[in-house]
Amino acid sequence: MTRPAILAVDGGGSKMDAALVRRDGTLLGAARIPTGDFGESGGDTHMGQVIDAVVAVCGDAGVSLERFPVAELGVYCLAGADLAVDDRRIARWLRSRCVTAEDIVRNDTFAVLRAGTDRTWGVGVVCGYGTNCSGVAPEGRITRFPSVGPISGDWGGGAEVGGAGLWFAIRAEDGRGNATSLTRLVPAHFGLRRPKQVLEALYLGRIDEARVAELAPVVFGAATAGDPIARSIVDRQADEIVLLAGTAIRRLRMAKLDVDVVLGGGIFRNGDGAFFDRIDDGIHATAPAARTHVLTAPPVLGAAMLGLDRLGAGPRAHRRLRDALTHDRLAAHTHPRP
Questions:
Q1: pLDDT digits over 192-218, tens only?
Q2: By C-alpha distance, which of 25, 3, 20, 4 is closest to 300?
Q3: How far is it, in rounded angstroms, from Cα 8 to Cα 76?
Q4: Rounded distance, CA 164 to CA 166, Å?
Q5: Which of 98, 39, 46, 113 is nearest to 261 (CA)?
Q6: Which residues, including other chains, have CB under 8 Å from residue 10's CB and lie 6 or more apart?
Q7: Sign (positive or negative) of CA dihedral 66, 70, 72, 76
Q8: Going by C-beta distance under 8 Å and a sequence separation of 6 or more, which residues neighbour residue 250?
Q9: Over the stretch 142-192, which tens digit does the pLDDT of each residue have?
Q10: Which pTM does this prediction carry?
């Protein structure tokens, strides 16, 4: 079999998706593996998960793993590729293994952006466990944010929204804060009765701290039901998304353009209309002609389309790939964690 033109990999905090694609946009294989904490960006654990995804997609496509490279061009859009030093570390690791003949390393926000628009430019915002944003101008200039937690000025995502819900529930219970339905809803999510019991379970390690992110849908549900405390948390998240996207738009001087703003990640899988209205209104205050979309395609599609862009493929190849590389296709080829 002729070596595929593109290996596309998209990796976040919970899964790693991979696809092998021909130059004409034909999808040869797709696979998904669950992932866990990857430690240092570009470290052996992190990159080992990338290789696990490569092994899985090669198996699906019938591509031999007897020798690398497995494709001419590799596009790796990865959570953890936040700083230039991360990009270099990941690129060095890939070169040392010769996974693909040529490597492109990007943050996963770039995959979200490209998957959500037929253009090569725009703004992508990811809000899942954490939050991040990147932008590409029509002439190719790029802006991005470090997104390594509070030390880089970040706020938002499931961990922050869920954590804020717990924070307000604890304070309401002990008298430091106003009454809120979160006092009941937060412990109920974990099968407990009182916020203090959640505090103790987290402190003693009976509940993994990462599970606090599970409370984000609880907070959104309470906000939709009219809880003012929960609404204040959701509004803060909306405002943070507007601030990220608006800053990227201004940096790239796109305020007068009909820029696509693509929203991807678990936080956007909710039915809170007021949340999305607040985002739309805030972005339009900066860029009146902007168009906001919630991503429905898998982000790995964006990584693969970035590969087609690099190879100079035409619209037909992009349409062919978009039609084939779907969530259903990936779900049908999900592998257990190695």
A1: 999 999 999 999 999 999 999 999 999
A2: 20
A3: 6
A4: 5
A5: 113
A6: 16, 17, 18, 77, 78, 108, 111, 298, 299, 300, 302, 303
A7: negative
A8: 286
A9: 999 988 888 889 999 999 999 999 999 999 999 999 999 999 999 999 999
A10: 0.92
Given a cut of 80, whether residue 42 has pLDDT beyond it is no
CB atoms inside a 10 Å sphere around CB 271: 9
- C-alpha to C-alpha distance for 211 and 232, rounded to whole angstroms: 22
HEC string of the chain equals CCCCCEEEEEECCCEEEEEEECCCCCEEEEEEEECCCCCCCCCHHHHHHHHHHHHHHHHHHCCCCCCCCCEEEEEEEECCCCCHHHHHHHHHHHHHHCCEEEEEEEEHHHHHHHHCCCCCCEEEEEECCCEEEEEECCCCCEEECCCCCHHHCCCCCHHHHHHHHHHHHHHHHHCCCCCCCHHHHHHHHCCCCCHHHHHHHHHCCCCCHHHHHHHHHHHHHHHHCCCHHHHHHHHHHHHHHHHHHHHHHHHCCCCCCCCEEEEECHHHCCCCHHHHHHHHHHHHHHCCCCEEEECCCCHHHHHHHHHHHHHCCCHHHHHHHHHHCCHHHHHCCECCCC
Across residues 260-270, what is the average pLDDT?
96
What radius of gyration, in Å, describes the C-alpha atoms of the chain?
21
State how beta strands 291-294 and 260-264 pair: parallel
Structure tokens at 46: 């992190």
- The pLDDT tens digits for 273-332 are 999 999 999 999 999 999 999 999 999 999 999 999 999 999 999 999 999 999 999 988
Tell me the average pLDDT across 216-241. Answer: 98
